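Section 3.1: Structural characterization of target chains.
Under the original work plan, the team committed to producing a structural model for every single-chain target entering the pipeline before any wet-lab resources were allocated. The record below documents one such target. The sequence was received from the expression subgroup and is listed exactly as submitted; it comprises 51 residues.
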Amino acid sequence: METISSFSSDELRIVEEDTNFDENKRELEIAYAKMKSGIQNFIPLKKLMQF
């Protein structure tokens, strides 16, 4: 925090990088809950490419 406060407001501007962050986070949380409960399985991309 000390480093950030050394910049003036003209030099520092915080921008939102992902406008869909909340929606993406919600979808990931749902997918994680399904994997955790066993409803959905996770297959690594490397293994999937073997098919």
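The chain is about 50% helix and 0% strand.
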